[in-house]
Amino acid sequence: MSIGVAILGSTGSIGCSTLQVLGRQRDRFRVAALTAHSNADLLQRQAAEWKPAYVGLVNGGSGVGARGSGVACLVEAATHPDVEIVVNAIVGAAGLEATLAALRAGKRVALANKETLVMAGELVTRTARECGGEIVPVDSEHSAVLQCVTGRQSAELARLILTASGGPFRTWTPERVAGATVDEALRHPTWKMGKKITVDSATLVNKALEVIEAHFLFGLPYDAVEVVVHPQSVVHAFVEFVDGSVLAQVGFPTMELPILYALTHPVRVPDAGTRRFDPVVAGTLTFEPVSSDLYPAYGLGRTAAATGGTAATAFNAANEVAVELFLDGKIRFGRIGETIARVLDAHHAGDAATLEAVLVADAEARRLAREAACR
Ligand code: NDP
Ligand code: MG
Questions:
Q1: What burial class does residue 174 get, using C-beta atoms within 10 Å of its C-beta: 0-12 exposed, 13-18 middle, 19+ buried?
Q2: Residue 101: CB within 6 Å of ligand 1?
Q3: What confidence category does residue 249 fall into, taking pLDDT thresholds of 50, 70 and 90?
Q4: How many angstroms does the Cα of residue 112 sit away from the middle of ligand 1?
Q5: Which residue range(s) make up the domain with 343?
Q6: What is the DSSP letter of 298?
Q7: Domain final residue, candidates 138, 173, 206
Q8: Measured from the CB, is residue 233 less than 6 Å from ligand 1?
Q9: Is the pTM here over 0.70, yes or no?
């Protein structure tokens, strides 16, 4: 019997890559549910090819062949009886309730939607623990860590080092970066991804989100989660064990491998589709420290993480608002970090243990961010 997979955000970069992977694994998996936000055309084509039991369009309705609509369709897809694994490939806070619902129903969540682990890490991990659900990361760095630690005890783990490409502005001066255009920010050197995460890679907010994600997934304190800039994106993460030994996971940058692993973990299955690794082609690999002048927002994220509670919720919300304003041409690139800083200054971090507390902090930070960004 094949395993039923729901893809929330099937029309996005991760969603489409997931369908690519599933296209080569048809005897193992079937597509049981698909959802999109507003790209009805692509969703319809995907549904025609894969014939899932459930199709949902958040911003549309049943007129385009979708069976569910509105935000409720995300939870309906995530908890559908035909679904065993939920790939959450939604961008931003909108993915939270579906993740919680899937975990409550005891399902595996293959999580690309890192924002929701940042905004509500305590709540999401507790829900998984209490309800028998499972969170398996899709993010390449976290997949790399998981691949290195599978079969080990958590007490054997000493330190994680996540790699960051450094984005398109790695060799720029901070002054030039502050005035970067949308086109420049969207020119990522090694990965082809959705717009929001591409901007997050240029500010390195993405890596701050990933540090928080790693903390919640692997249970390490923040001072044991480090980041190094590695422009070639071949080494995805290093894991240091208590005896000093270090393992790394390597490969040419592609999301298809971590997506497949999130579906099959802890087992590995043959896949003819991914480009085979060749160290000679990979060539020289270089590593450098993160420059705090070039990526001020990264430091803000780490500080919010260390503060704990709703500080990470506010960090994520402020960033989501600022990135949207930047992509809409309303603020300059440098204003993203400034907006986050202002929101964190004004935010009184509280307990982030309940959904209500998280949603209140999220809404408040969004309001502050809109105010701060345009001041
Ligand atoms: P995209 O912008 O390419 O895709 C986002 C998907 O989510 C689309 O299907 C979109 O639907 C849907 N969506 C957007 N807003 C909403 C909403 N409010 N409610 C429901 N659905 C919504 O993003 P990516 O695929 O790049 O990223 C998805 C997630 O994966 C992010 O959290 C990102 O950080 C993470 N990630 C991405 C990587 C990548 O390589 N792209 C790598 C690692 C992590 P529609 O098309 O209809 O608008
Ligand atoms: Mg990543």
A1: middle
A2: no
A3: very high
A4: 8
A5: 308-375
A6: H
A7: 138
A8: no
A9: yes
